[in-house]
Each structure stands twice: as C-alpha cells, then as structure tokens.
Automatic annotation (TrEMBL):
Signal peptide: none annotated. Gene3D superfamilies: alpha/beta hydrolase. One of its GO terms (molecular function) is carboxylic ester hydrolase activity. The lineage of its organism: Bacteria, Bacillati, Bacillota, Clostridia, Eubacteriales. It comes from the Bacteria. SUPFAM superfamilies: alpha/beta-Hydrolases (SSF53474). This is Lysophospholipase. Residues 223-440 form the Serine aminopeptidase S33 domain. It comes from Clostridium cylindrosporum DSM 605.
C-alpha cells in the first residue's frame, strides 16, 4: 500500500517534533541532575571547611573529617570534567592537608601521653614531629591561617617537652646568655657539666668566616654543638656564640660595611666574652681555653693580643695562607670536581677572584673605600702584614693544632706552614686525622660530605679534653 507525499511529510514532521520534545525534556533532566550534584558537593565541601575552622583539631574529629573527605570526593567524582569539578577537588585537597597535619600532631601528642617521658622514646617522637611539620607546611595558610598557627603551637609544645626530657636526663645544663656592648650583645649558650669539678675547665669556641652560628652549622653537620656537648660529658664547660655577622647582621649593612674590620667581626666580641666569663663565680678564670676553627684559628694570635687571659689554644683546621689566596685555591679545586661546568663561566669567576686577589695585595692606607671579593678596603687592610706563624711563635701558652686529612678547604700544607714557623717550640703539638673533613666529621673531599648527618669524631673530642686537662 503506498503512502502519499503529504502523509510522508506529516510523518517526518511528527518524528522531528517528538525528537525535539524528547531532547528538550531529557536535557533539562540531565542539567537538573548535574546542578543537583554540584550543589551537593558544594554543601559538603563548605560544611567540611566550616567544621575544620570551628572545631578542635583533635583525634576524634580527625576520623570524622577523613570520612567526610571520602564522601566529598565520591560526590565530586560524579561531576563532569570541568572547572567546577577541579575547583572542588582543590578545596577538598586543601582540607585534606589540614586533616593530615592534625592527624600527625595528634599522633605525637597521644604517644607522649601514653608513654613514659624517657630518652628512649625521643627518636620516635622526633620522627613524628618531622612528618607533622612536613604536613603542616602543605596547609594553605590563606584558607586555614588560624588552624595552621594552632598546629604550629602544638608542635612547638611537643618539642619543648622533648627538650626538657633531654635536659633532665643529660649530664649537663644549658644556659642562654646575652651580654656585652649595647646594640651588639653577644648571644650564645653556656654548657656546664651537672657535676662540676673543683678545677673545672671552660672552653670558648670561636667560629670560622662568614655569618657563623653557635653550632657551626653547615649542611647537616653541627661541629661546635657536637664539641660542646662532648666536652660537657667529660666535665668541661663551654661557651659558643652566634657571630656578630649573624646575630647583628642588620648593623653590618652597606652603610657601615666600609668601616667593618676584623676588630668588629671578632676581637670586640671576644674581649667581651673573656671578661664576662671571668666575672662569673661558677667559672674558673684561670682555666679558660680557646678553640679557634678555620678563620677563628687563623686569628688566634690576634685574639691573644685582644685579651690574653686564655690558658691555651686549640687551632682546628686553621688556615695559614692569606684569605684571598685560599679563596682562589678553593675555587680551583671545586671547579676540578665539576668538569661539566661551563668553561666560560669558570674563567669569568676565576678572573674575578684573581683580579680581586691582586687588588687586595696592592692596598695601602691611601686606598679608596671599595668592596673587593665581598669585603671592604678597611677589612682587607686589617690583615695587612699579618703573619700567623710569626705571631703564633710569640705565644708562650700551650697550643694544639688539629687537622683533618680530607679537608679540601684548609689543606694539610697549611698545618705544615705552622710547623715550620713553630719549629723548636715545645709548647706546640700537632694531631692529624685520616678521613675527617673541615668540620672534623667523616667524609670525602667534596662539598657533598656536608650533606651527611655525621658527628664530630669522638677521638677529636677526646684529644681536646686531654689537652685542656
């Protein structure tokens, strides 16, 4: 049976109309469903953030929030890919960082509450704290400023508990000190053995060049702290301090820099330290020794002239050559370890160092103020004519020279120059150590050695203690 053209057109129009109606209705249904999903995710995420901001970040709540985050992610997964889905995933992730950080902090606090406060538990707690800090670092401070600050405070409280446990269980006490010239106060730490010997010796640790802190921190090693604590266990007190170039760096500004000399960097503070320690009733001023490390050893004869009350001196990895010469040597050695470093840049740096070296050696009292290799004309002139060997030979007190044989910053040849200058002097002794670097920790002759978590060799501490006793 045939179909007329009119009926066929009506049939097509009917199909098209039905399709349009169906599509319109179905599209509204889909759009409505998506809109509903977005609203659900929005409510869930906003409630989560509100809850985090208005409730204690405690152990019980952490579990609820973790479940809530799981639900929010499940809802968000239903959304089509697009800006809304990405926006809510980002908010969920930021909330999760806070919840993870809170979980870590609670883990530390619970462990401290449930276990005895003994030295044996400290390594695990310190491990928890490191992980907690890593999680806190990820928290968005703009979204959770107060919450992040509260977690930081709780971690700090845990660290104080650990420190108090250490102090109570250690065989020495620690005292934070600040004294000296107004505006340039010396800031450091005095460590004393708990059982103070009648003839207790005290050691002052004078650090190396640059803005050196009281621990001598470089990479992952803290040589001055290791030495101080090691000597305390042997009944010897110590004082170590943050150099002025660190603790008062704001005063060592461009404005003052041209008048900054070795006197301001070392000698003024050293004199204040020796006077202060001598004034204390718990310190025997007749038994104070001085350890000078690196540049701190290089200037020991200057320290002796600034204040002659020390009983003896330890030169640790002490340089002998002029600073500007050592700078050239050190860079030449470092570049020899870096064959892939661009040759043009090597040449540029070495040219600058050698040009600076020549300028420094040509300085005199009439030279204009300038910055050469990072230091002022007056600073370089404060070393003019200085001969550490000749000056050390005039010291009539006991002197001990220590040298690590894997030290690439101050080589054994520097020690040999002291030996030559002090030949025949019976008050000087020398010890070298196989496998030790500039910080007197184990390592190879590369900068990577400072990245290893090594302690100062016990043999070094024993040798210093024997020298002082």
């Amino acid at each position: 049976m045939g179909i007329s053209m009119k009926r066929f057109k009506d049939f097509l129009i009917g199909i098209m109309t039905a399709t349009i109606v169906f599509t319109s209705i179905g599209g509204n249904v889909v759009h409505s469903a998506v809109k509903s999903d977005v609203e659900n995710v929005h409510r869930k995420v906003e409630h989560l953030i509100y809850s985090l901001k208005n409730n204690y970040l405690g152990l019980k709540n952490v579990g609820n929030w973790q479940a809530y985050i799981k639900e929010a992610r499940k809802l968000n997964s239903k959304l089509p890919n697009g800006s809304s889905k990405k926006k809510y995933e980002d908010k969920i992730l930021r909330a999760e960082h806070l919840v993870n950080a809170a979980a870590r902090v609670n883990q530390v606090e619970k462990s401290m509450k449930d276990n005895k406060h003994t030295l044996g538990n400290i390594p695990q707690w310190e491990k928890y704290i490191v992980l907690a800090k890593e999680d806190i670092f990820k928290v968005d401070a703009r979204l959770f400023e107060n919450e992040k600050a509260k977690l930081d405070e709780r971690v700090s409280s845990c660290e104080k508990i650990i420190e108090s446990i250490k102090i109570n269980n250690e065989k020495y006490t620690k005292e934070e000190l600040s004294f000296g010239i107004k505006g340039f106060e010396v800031k450091g730490e005095l460590i004393k053995p708990k059982k103070v010997p009648k003839d207790m010796k005290t050691v002052v640790i004078v650090g190396g060049s640059g803005p050196t802190d009281r621990d001598g921190e470089v990479g992952n090693v803290h040589p001055y702290k290791d030495i101080a604590e090691g000597l305390a266990l042997k009944g010897i007190a110590s004082f170590r301090y943050d150099k002025r170039t660190l603790s008062h760096r704001e005063h060592v500004s461009d404005k003052d820099y041209f008048n900054f000399t070795i006197k301001e960097e070392y000698l003024d503070d050293y004199n204040e330290i020796m006077k202060y320690l001598a004034s204390r009733g718990d310190i025997n001023k007749e038994n104070i020794y001085v350890i000078g490390h690196s540049q701190g050893g290089y200037i020991i004869p200057m320290l002796e002239k600034a204040n002659s009350s020390a009983k003896g001196y330890v030169f640790m990895g002490a340089s002998f050559s002029p600073i500007e010469d050592l700078m050239v040597e050190q860079y030449e050695y470092l570049f020899s370890l870096s064959p892939n470093y661009p040759e043009d840049k090597k040449e540029e740096i070495m040219k600058e160092l050698k040009d600076g070296n020549r300028k420094i050696k040509a300085l005199d009292e009439n030279s204009e103020d300038a910055l050469i290799l990072g230091a002022s004309t007056k600073y370089w002139l404060s070393f003019k004519g200085y001969d550490p060997g000749k000056e050390a030979s005039a010291i009539d007190k006991s002197m001990l020279f220590l040298q690590g044989l894997n030290d690439y910053q101050v080589r054994e040849k520097e020690l040999n120059k002291y030996k030559e200058s002090l030949e025949g002097k019976t008050n000087a002794s020398y010890i070298t150590y196989e496998g030790l670097i500039h910080t007197f920790t184990k390592g190879d002759m590369t900068p990577n050695a400072y990245g290893e978590k090594e302690k100062v060799s016990q043999r070094v501490i024993d040798d210093i203690a024997s020298f002082c006793k």
